[in-house]
């Protein structure tokens, strides 16, 4: 069984990007600039955004954090997005989700200029991805595919089951893995909370991706011997043995499942760091697409 080490792979990608940034700098060209809008104080979101900015710093990107209180109005947020759309110094930006209930996330996504939408959430980018046109692929699915590529995971002709149909992970990943690309060419099943016989469906998977946000959802009896298992779950659960009082839990019962697999991602240190690495790749691409 092989551990698909996302932490290590993301570090390699950051080093590759740092070289590209240095080359740009040395040639007197502009370096990428990512902005992140963070609303409220949700512990997970604060950590994710901080890690994104830390990653920018490490690579040599410029970054800007824009923070708002939970009570911000939708109008103020939309105005800020419009100003970032127009700000020539910013190559790409993200609005960390989830947002408070009084703010319409779809309205927010639709306000972002697709050319700066490095999260790839805007319908124009979703459509571009579907049609293989230039644009941005959401960071988590892109990171998973990149991890598979770098570990030479054989995907062509394989049965891939993606559990969870979110707009951010499950749905775009199922599309990517079904494409005529490498990695790709999978026979994809997109399973979800209404799927009947979920255990039988999962047992048919050569590649099983769990993206449901339920700790330990995938148990050993659902996994075929020799399968590749990708765990997208990052739920914070209480853990009094840790100083901070919690730990991250994946969707896969790692201890029981890992011995049955040929390869598996850990949580933490699997998909999470690859998501951030992909966001960095998208930010560089944002600048290149503009011909800067
Ligand atoms: N919340 C959870 N994942 C993501 C992500 O990839 N981007 C943004 N903006 N918010 C998220």
UniProtKB/TrEMBL annotation:
SUPFAM superfamilies xref list: Aminoacid dehydrogenase-like, N-terminal domain, NAD(P)-binding Rossmann-fold domains
Name recorded for this polypeptide: Bifunctional protein FolD
Catalysed reaction equations from the record: (6R)-5,10-methenyltetrahydrofolate + H2O = (6R)-10-formyltetrahydrofolate + H(+); (6R)-5,10-methylene-5,6,7,8-tetrahydrofolate + NADP(+) = (6R)-5,10-methenyltetrahydrofolate + NADPH
Organism: Fluviicola taffensis (strain DSM 16823 / NCIMB 13979 / RW262)
Domain Tetrahydrofolate dehydrogenase/cyclohydrolase NAD(P)-binding: 138-288
Binding site for NADP(+): 164-166, 234
Family indicated by similarity: Belongs to the tetrahydrofolate dehydrogenase/cyclohydrolase family.
InterPro entries with a match to the protein in the record: Aminoacid_DH-like_N_sf, NAD(P)-bd_dom_sf, THF_DH/CycHdrlase, THF_DH/CycHdrlase_cat_dom, THF_DH/CycHdrlase_CS, THF_DH/CycHdrlase_NAD-bd_dom
EC id: 1.5.1.5, 3.5.4.9
Source domain of life: Bacteria
Subunit structure of this chain's protein: Homodimer.
Keywords annotated in UniProt: Amino-acid biosynthesis, Histidine biosynthesis, Hydrolase, Methionine biosynthesis, Multifunctional enzyme, NADP, One-carbon metabolism, Oxidoreductase, Purine biosynthesis
Tetrahydrofolate dehydrogenase/cyclohydrolase catalytic domain residues: 4-119
Function: Catalyzes the oxidation of 5,10-methylenetetrahydrofolate to 5,10-methenyltetrahydrofolate and then the hydrolysis of 5,10-methenyltetrahydrofolate to 10-formyltetrahydrofolate.
Lineage: Bacteria, Pseudomonadati, Bacteroidota, Flavobacteriia, Flavobacteriales
GO molecular function: methenyltetrahydrofolate cyclohydrolase activity; methylenetetrahydrofolate dehydrogenase (NADP+) activity
Pfam families xref list: THF_DHG_CYH (PF00763), THF_DHG_CYH_C (PF02882)
Pathway as given in its UniProt record: One-carbon metabolism; tetrahydrofolate interconversion
GO cellular component terms, A-Z: cytosol
BP GO terms, sorted: L-histidine biosynthetic process; methionine biosynthetic process; purine nucleotide biosynthetic process; tetrahydrofolate interconversion
């Amino acid at each position: 069984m092989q551990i698909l080490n996302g932490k290590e792979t993301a570090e390699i990608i950051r080093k590759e990007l740092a070289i590209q940034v240095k080359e740009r700098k040395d040639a007197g060209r502009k370096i990428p600039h990512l902005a992140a809008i963070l609303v409220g104080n949700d512990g997970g979101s604060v950590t994710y955004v901080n890690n994104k900015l830390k990653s920018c710093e490490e690579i040599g990107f410029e970054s800007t954090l824009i923070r708002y209180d939970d009570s911000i109005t939708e109008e103020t947020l939309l105005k800020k997005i419009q100003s970032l759309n127009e700000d020539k110094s910013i190559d790409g930006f993200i609005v960390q989700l989830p947002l408070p209930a009084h703010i319409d996330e779809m309205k927010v996504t639709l306000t972002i200029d697709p050319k700066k939408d490095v999260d790839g959430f805007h319908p124009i980018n979703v459509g571009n991805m579907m049609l293989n046109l230039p644009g941005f692929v959401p960071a988590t699915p892109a990171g998973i595919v990149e991890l598979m590529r770098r570990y030479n995971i054989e995907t062509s002709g394989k049965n891939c089951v993606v559990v969870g149909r979110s707009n951010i992970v499950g749905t775009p990943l199922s599309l990517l893995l079904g494409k005529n690309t490498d990695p790709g060419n999978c026979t994809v099943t997109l399973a979800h909370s209404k799927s009947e016989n979920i255990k039988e469906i999962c047992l048919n998977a050569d590649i099983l991706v769990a993206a449901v946000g339920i700790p330990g959802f995938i148990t050993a009896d659902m996994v075929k011997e020799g399968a590749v298992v990708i765990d997208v779950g990052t739920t914070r659960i209480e853990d009094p043995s840790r100083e901070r009082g919690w730990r991250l839990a994946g969707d896969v019962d790692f201890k029981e499942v890992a011995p049955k697999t040929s390869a598996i991602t850990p949580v933490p240190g699997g998909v999470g760091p690859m998501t951030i690495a992909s966001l960095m790749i998208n930010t560089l691409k944002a600048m290149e697409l503009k011909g800067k």
